[in-house]
Amino acid sequence: MQRMHEAGMYQDIHIGGVLISSFVAYALAAFVILLGLRWVVFARIRFSRYVANAPLAEAGLYVCVLALLIAFI
Length: 73
Prior knowledge:
The protein is mostly helical. It is about 60% helix and about 10% strand. A hairpin with a 2-residue loop joins strand 1 (about 15) and strand 2.
């Protein structure tokens, strides 16, 4: 699906003739990872007890996961 140019830049993803930016794929992958974290980890430790604003903390974690995906993939 995704291939690198000679210069190391990622190409767009082609799905059914539609070009999709690789950032959109990273954003969707980060969202799926965050959903998994929410259902598996956050529910068990009651994440909202440890932070003052749980949605804001989850948004921050989403940005961190997205940045890690972009940096290491």
